[in-house]
Amino acid sequence: MSDTVIKLCDFGAAYEKKTVLEGVSTSIRRGRITAIMGPSGCGKSTLLKAMNRMLELQGGASIRGSIHLDGQDIQSIPVDELRRRVGMVFQTPTPFPLSIYKNMTYAPLYYGVHGKQKLDEIVRENLEITGLWDEVKDELDKSALKLSGGQQQRLCIARALTAEPEILLLDEPCSALDVKSTQVIEQLLLQLKERYTIVIVTHNLFQARRIADDCIFMLGGELWEQNTTEELFSNPQRPETKDYLHGAYA
Ligand SMILES: Nc1ncnc2c1ncn2[C@@H]1O[C@H](COP(=O)(O)OP(=O)(O)OP(=O)(O)O)[C@@H](O)[C@H]1O
Ligand SMILES: [Mg+2]
Question: pTM for the complete prediction?
Answer without folding.
Answer: 0.95
